[in-house]
Specification:
- GO terms for molecular function: pyridoxal phosphate binding; transaminase activity.
- With 359 residues, this protein is an alpha/beta fold.
- The protein folds into 2 domains: 226 residues, Aspartate Aminotransferase, domain 2, CATH 3.40.640.10; 119 residues, Aspartate Aminotransferase, domain 1, CATH 3.90.1150.
- The chain has 11 helices and 16 strands.
- The strands form 5 sheets. Strands 2-10-9-6-5-3-4 form a 7-stranded mixed β-sheet, sandwiched between helices. Strands 8-7-13 form a 3-stranded antiparallel β-sheet, with no helix packed on it. It has a two-stranded parallel sheet with strand order 1-15.
- The structure holds pyridoxal-5'-phosphate.
Length: 359
């Protein structure tokens, strides 16, 4: 049997079946149906946020965010993230300006942001990498001083908190992904969270073709999600605490077994931060080592994943190059080990043994 880096959580089949039964009674399959609205309400409660829209995925959430904030020119962003963080900027015809990351959290280095600001800069779009919060206080101050908007790609943050608040509650807009591989998923899906009520209305119009009833007053896109996806979310949401607890136990087992004299891990003690155990990344001493470890695991049908690779400032289609030495170094050394709710602790022992023997 293959052990993948992740495995999607599925609720009991009968429970999902019961949840979607109503769809056969009301024939309401999509377009802001009752299950979508119920999920939005429950997500707002769970995350402790006022405004939230459920959408088709975490990538379109970013695209709509950039559109609704009317961002132009340049957006300062992180090179250490999934490609969607960068491509959503390019998709909106804005130029990404890469600012290097911190060597311990792998988040954008807030101390380097100001020197990258030009008269064309309209926003900062940063990722809370592996669920760990960016320096939200410092970024907020810079944004206020230079009149910039802040968007956080919070695709990894579901269930993670910072000083008692969801990591998703910072920034003008925060987005999340509910893709099947994430801690909380709705098969495909995502959400947009914002503070401003007017912005919420605008985002809702973008989500639904830019019309209201028969009034077609602005250009929109289709980012609505379906009742079937919302039903999966409603089944999974009550289990998030249990899923995170299981992932915690597995992560702590890795912590105790891996040879830390030859491996590094992201900073563990961020004051006020409670982790959701979204990933189990380790940093190898070199890319060569990473390839050796990957090969040794593969022989035993264990498939870790290079996450994030490549460093986004090196994407081939950019047409320019902003050097980001820390991100470039981290992206060739970062490997995410298998982590999911029912990963057997015996397998964690086996994986750790293989990794340690290859270091
Ligand atoms: C998963 C992910 C996305 C994309 O989300 P989708 O729902 O798959 O579109 C964006 N950014 C980051 C950092 C991600 O991990």
């Amino acid at each position: 049997m293959v052990i993948n880096v992740t495995k999607s959580f599925l609720p009991p089949f009968e429970e999902y079946q019961n949840k979607i039964k109503g769809i056969w009674e009301n024939t309401w399959l999509t377009n802001n149906g009752p299950l979508v609205r119920e999920l939005e309400d429950k997500l707002k409660d769970y995350l402790g946020v006022k405004n939230l829209l459920y959408v088709t995925n975490g990538t379109i959430a970013l695209q709509i965010a950039i559109k609704a904030l009317d961002l132009k020119g340049e957006i300062i962003t992180t090179p250490f993230s999934y490609c969607a963080t960068t491509t959503s900027i390019l998709w909106e015809n804005v130029k990404p300006v890469f600012v290097d990351i911190e060597a311990d959290t792998y988040n954008i280095d807030a101390n380097l942001i100001e020197q990258a600001i030009t008269d064309k800069t309209s926003a900062i779009l940063a990722t809370h990498v592996y669920g760990r919060p960016c320096d939200v206080e410092k970024i907020e101050k810079i944004a206020q001083k230079h009149n910039l908007k802040v968007i956080y790609d919070g695709a990894h943050c579901f269930g993670a908190t910072y000083h008692g608040k969801s990591v998703l509650s910072f920034g003008d807009i925060a987005t999340c992904s509910f893709h099947a591989t994430k801690v909380f998923h709705t098969i495909e899906g995502g959400c947009i969270i914002c503070k401003d009520d007017e912005l919420l209305t605008k985002l809702a119009h973008y989500r639904s073709f830019g019309h209201k009833n028969d009034d077609y007053f602005m250009i929109g896109i289709n980012a609505k999600n379906s009742e079937f996806h919302a039903a999966m979310g409603l089944c999974n949401l009550p289990r998030v605490a249990d899923i995170i607890e299981k992932r915690k136990i597995i992560s702590e087992r890795y912590d105790s077994l891996l040879d830390w004299s030859k491996l590094k891990q992201p900073k563990q003690d961020i004051e006020g931060f409670e982790y959701n155990y979204a990933y189990y990344p380790v940093m190898l001493s070199s890319e060569q080592k990473l390839l050796e470890v990957t090969e040794a695991l593969k022989k035993e049908h264990i498939l870790p994943r290079r996450y994030f690779y490549p460093s986004l400032n090196q994407l081939p289609y950019l047409g320019f190059y902003n050097p980001c030495p820390v991100s470039e170094e981290m992206s060739v050394a970062a490997l995410s080990l298998p982590l999911y709710y029912d990963l057997d602790l015996k397998d964690v022992e086996k994986i750790s043994r293989i990794v340690n023997a290859t270091l």
